[in-house]
Amino acid sequence: MPDRAPQPVDRQxxxxxxxxxxxxxxxxxxxxxxxxxAEEEDAGRFPREVFTLLSRSGLLGLPYDAEYGGGDQPxxxxxxxxxxxxxxxxxxxxxxxVHTLASYALAAxxxxxxxxxxxxxxxxxxLLGAYALSEPxxxxxxxxxxxxxxxxxxxxxxxxxxxxxxHGGVADFYTVMARTGVEGPRGITAFLVPGDAEGLSAAAxxxxxxxxGSPTAQIHLDGVRIPDERRIGEEGQGFAIALSAxxxxxxxxxACAIGLAQAxxxxxxxxxxxxxxxxxxxxxxxxxxxxxxxxxxxxxAGRALYxxxxxxRDAGRPFAREAAMAKxxxxxxxxxxxxxxxxxxxxxxxxxxxPVERYMREAKVxxxxxxxxxxxxxxxxxxxxxxxxx
Length: 390
Fold this sequence. Notes:
The chain is α+β, with helices and mostly antiparallel strands. It has ten helices and ten strands. The longest helix is centred in the middle third of the chain and has 37 residues, at 238-274.
């Protein structure tokens, strides 16, 4: 395998604190994550100890308030942390993005007492979260979900099945969307469900093309009883909470996609510099040089797009359109770049001796999770051309 170390991405960061933070993340990625990534992904091993380390290092709550154990970092910094982690191992970068998504509902819509009671453990106490919106029969059409929450005195009783849950079976808490009222989006409410709640169980993890170290499983809620204190926001507000969480979560997926693409490009460049054919490094041949140039350009464009959306969010401005654009472009870029990286390596790229075949398998899921790229195009089109005629 190539032994040339890739040059770190030259990042424009707003503060010295942010620069120190990226330096810490790179050290963790280089020494604690990357060396085990290939072996553990092949074995399907979830690196829970890495998330414990991230928690102890203050990295599980970066965009949230320091008052509750967060890092008080702007999204433009948090997303670049995600990118660094995803470049080392997508299971870790995506896992942090999902945890941040799962924490959003309580952080943004919980009462002051709820935030004080739960957020410190969620953001810096070693807990790991999962986000439970999708169901076996409601994926893109999330407003048709069937999981029910029925009021019983001061409690709610939840019954139903959630599907495609990242961290399913290993999470310490689940942000669950359940139906408490009428059909459609107005009848959905958000709940914070402990991972060890009686009646909550996980099916066997899905057997996936890639991301084998990240457990994805159905979650069954069989009469799970939780107090009203764990209802987040008002009754019927859950779908709006879910959509606002996904706007931010899509930026996380975009950043992870660019991290994965950057790792693939770095591998391709190193291989092309070392591999010799016809008496010269293959990096000398124009056909490959143009491929590498296109890969690098797409990555830089994707990075600029997700950072522009993040800066809108940090400024308190609308960013839903830009988040959809970033998710669409960055994940399509990851698919193209990882595919091209396999091509640069030729036959070796198709073997498990090099990581690019894993990168290519992992890139595919990023075009699907947190809203397929077809859904992103629908969102963007509504912003550009207005809602569809009925």
